Structures are given as C-alpha cells and as structure tokens.
Amino acid sequence: MLQRVREARVDVDGQTVGAIGPGLLVLVCAEPADTPQHAVRLVDKVLKLRIFGDEAGKMNRSVQDVAGGLLIVSQFTLAADTSSGNRPSFTGAAPAELGRQLYEAVLAEARQRHTPAGQVQAGVFGADMAVSLVNAGPVTIPLRIT
Questions:
Q1: Per residue in 84-103, pLDDT tens?
Q2: Known catalytic residue: 76?
C-alpha cells in the first residue's frame, strides 16, 4: 500500500529513524509465496506510478519525476484476515525471517534505483513503530504484485 504524502516519518523508542518531505509512504507486507522478484516488481511499480500532479493538476508524474522521497515501512498487518470473528488472523503474512529478507530486498532495490541519494528512508523491521504522515490528496493506493 502506498500513500502520497506531504511529509512522513517513523519513530522507534521516541527517536526518528526515517523521515521524508513530499513523496510516498510505502507500507510493505510480505506473504509466504513472495520472492525477491516480487520486490523488484514492487519497486518498479512504486517508482513509475503516475500519481503526482502535472501543470494541469492531472496525475501524470511519478515520484521520480518530482524527485520525491520514499519512506518504506514493513507492515505485516496488511495481511490481516478478518473474514471470521472479531480478532484478525495474520496467518497470511510471511514468516518473520522471509518477511525480513523480502523487506530488505525492497529497500536495497529502492536505494539502488531511486535518486537522489538519501531519498529512501526506512522503518525498523519488527519494531513497534510510530508512523506519522500528512497525506497529500489524500491519495492512498493498494498495490498487489503477483
């Protein structure tokens, strides 16, 4: 899932570990069948998705076109199954070690491909994080890479 933001940050234990100005907050959830190739395709989609306004106000520009930041945060709760009962099940999320590997693959790919340097910030995998954002639009888009 991604959100177009005016600014966003993630804090762990009261310390800011990642922050961006205008750009995208990318919430990443790995599922058991995901592979490193999914990470490459996800980053490709995030970098090319045209959801920033052009001169006419139409969504025609990508985060790269506007030199926006990326704040990438792991969020296994996106795999929640709420189809029965009132307590969500997270069995659809990848096991922790696979989730970590895939999250790190997304980060590495984004850091390699998105410029300028320093425009890719991150949360801390598995940490209790406080994510703050000012949504721009608001524009929130679910992404599913298959």
A1: 999 999 989 999 999 999 99
A2: yes
What token pair was written down for 30? 């790995």
Instruction: List, in order of start, the domains of the chain with CATH numbers.
Output: 2-137 (3.50.80.10)
Q: At what angle do helices 36-48 and 96-113 cross, to 10 degrees?
A: 40
Cα distances (Å, whole numbers) of residue 10 to 1, 85, 92, 135, 142: 16, 31, 25, 14, 20
| Residue 137 to residue 146: CA distance in whole angstroms | 27
CB within 8 Å of 29: residues ≥ 6 apart: 1, 74, 75, 76, 77, 78, 79, 93
3, 52, 76, 119: the active-site residue: 76
Cis status of the peptide bond prior to 32, with omega within 30 of 0: no
> What's the pLDDT band for 144 if we cut at 50, 70, 90?
confident
β-partners of residue 140 are 3
Q: How many helical (H) and strand (E) elements, i.e. helices and strands, does the chain have?
A: 2, 8
Of the residues 77, 90, 112, 115, which is catalytic?
A: 77
Q: Which residue has the tokens 């990642």?
A: 18
* Backbone φ and ψ of 137, nearest 5°: 130, -75
